[in-house]
DNA sequence: AACTAGTGCAACCGCCTGCAT
DNA sequence: CATGCAGGCGGTTGCACTAGT
C-alpha cells in the first residue's frame, strides 16, 4: 500500500516538476527516486547482479551515486522485501535481538526475513523508543527513583565480526593486537578471552546453561546471562551451529 | 478551511573496515 | 607502511501525510 502511495507520490512530484526533497548538489541527483529510475536500477541489477555498485550508475544510466543506488536496491527494490506492519512475532524477536545485539540493525534484520535494516531501525526509533520513554515516565509518575527500578539499559554484547584472511595474525594463533581494533576502542581482558574462545572454536564452552557463557558486566562485577538470553541464543544455535556462524552469517 | 504538532518512512551523511596498489 | 577506493553500517534529517484543534 505504502509502495503504491510512494510511487504515486513520486509520479505526481515528477509531473509537477518541482521534485520536492531534491537537494541541488553538484553532479549527482539526490532525493526521492522516480519510477523510471527504479526501473533502470532494477533492470541493471537483474542484468549484472548485485555488487559493483560503483559501476551501477554508469550501467543503468542513472545520475545517482553508488551509495544511493545500493540503498535504494537494498531497502526498496530488492525482491521479497516485506512491507507493512511488523507482526507480534517479529516485534518480539526484534526486542530480544536488540537486547542481545544492541543497535546492530543489519544483524537484527538478518534474522527477520524480508525486513531491511532500515525498516528495523525506523521501527525501533519510532515505536520502541516511545515505549521506553513512556515506561520511564510511568516510573517517574509512580515516584519510583530511576535507580530503584528494574528498567536498566541493556547489557549488550558487542562482538566485532571480522573476516579473517589468511594473513591475519589471529588465524595463526597469535593474539589480537588491541591497538588494531579501533582508534577509541580498548580491548579488555574479557573481550580478548572472548576472541580466543571464538577463534579457537570453543563453542562447546558457550552452552548458555548459566554455567558457561559470556560474562555481562554489572555494577563493576560480572554476572552470567539471564535465562531469557539463554533461550534466545539457543534458538539461534538451532540454525547456526556455532557462535561464529551466527555472528558472521 | 486553516493551522499545528506528531508520525513514519525514504534517503543522506559520515564513519569504519577490508582490499588493492 | 601509506594511500585511495568501494562496500557497508548506524545515526540523523527532510518531508509528506495524518490527526487534532
TrEMBL record:
Pfam families: Myb_DNA-binding (PF00249). InterPro entries: Homeodomain-like_sf, Myb_dom, Myb_TF_plants, SANT/Myb. It is found in: Nucleus. GO terms for molecular function: DNA binding. Keywords: Activator, DNA-binding, Nucleus, Repeat, Transcription, Transcription regulation. Transmembrane segments: none annotated. It comes from the Eukaryota. Residues 25-81, 82-132 form the HTH myb-type domain. GO terms for biological process: regulation of primary metabolic process. Its main location: nucleus. One of its GO terms (cellular component) is nucleus. Residues 25-77, 78-128 form the Myb-like domain. The keyword Magnesium does not apply. SMART domains: SANT (SM00717). This is Uncharacterized protein. It comes from Vigna mungo.
Amino acid at each position: 500500500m505504502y509502495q503504491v502511495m510512494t510511487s504515486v507520490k513520486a509520479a505526481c512530484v515528477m509531473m509537477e516538476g518541482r521534485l520536492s526533497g531534491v537537494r541541488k548538489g553538484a553532479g549527482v541527483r539526490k532525493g526521492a527516486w522516480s519510477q523510471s529510475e527504479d526501473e533502470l536500477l532494477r533492470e541493471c541489477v537483474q542484468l549484472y547482479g548485485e555488487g559493483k555498485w560503483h559501476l551501477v550508475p554508469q550501467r543503468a544510466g542513472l545520475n545517482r551515486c553508488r551509495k544511493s543506488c545500493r540503498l535504494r536496491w537494498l531497502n526498496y527494490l530488492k525482491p521479497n522485501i516485506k512491507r507493512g506492519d511488523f507482526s507480534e512475532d517479529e516485534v518480539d524477536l526484534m526486542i530480544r535481538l536488540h537486547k542481545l545485539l544492541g543497535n546492530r540493525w543489519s544483524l537484527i534484520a538478518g534474522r527477520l526475513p524480508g525486513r531491511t535494516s532500515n525498516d528495523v531501525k525506523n521501527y525501533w526509533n519510532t515505536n520502541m523508543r516511545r515505549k521506553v520513554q513512556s515506561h520511564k515516565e510511568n516510573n517517574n509518575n509512580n515516584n519510583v527513583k530511576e535507580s530503584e527500578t528494574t528498567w536498566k539499559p541493556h547489557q549488550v554484547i558487542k562482538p566485532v565480526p571480522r573476516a579473517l584472511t589468511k594473513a591475519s595474525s589471529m588465524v595463526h594463533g597469535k593474539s589480537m593486537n588491541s591497538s588494531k581494533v579501533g582508534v577509541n576502542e580498548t580491548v579488555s581482558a574479557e573481550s580478548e578471552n572472548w576472541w580466543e574462545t571464538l577463534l579457537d572454536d570453543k563453542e562447546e564452552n558457550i552452552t548458555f546453561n548459566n554455567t558457561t557463557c559470556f560474562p555481562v558486566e554489572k555494577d563493576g562485577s560480572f554476572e552470567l546471562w539471564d535465562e531469557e538470553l539463554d533461550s534466545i541464543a539457543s534458538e539461534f544455535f538451532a540454525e547456526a551451529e556455532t557462535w561464529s556462524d551466527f555472528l558472521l552469517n
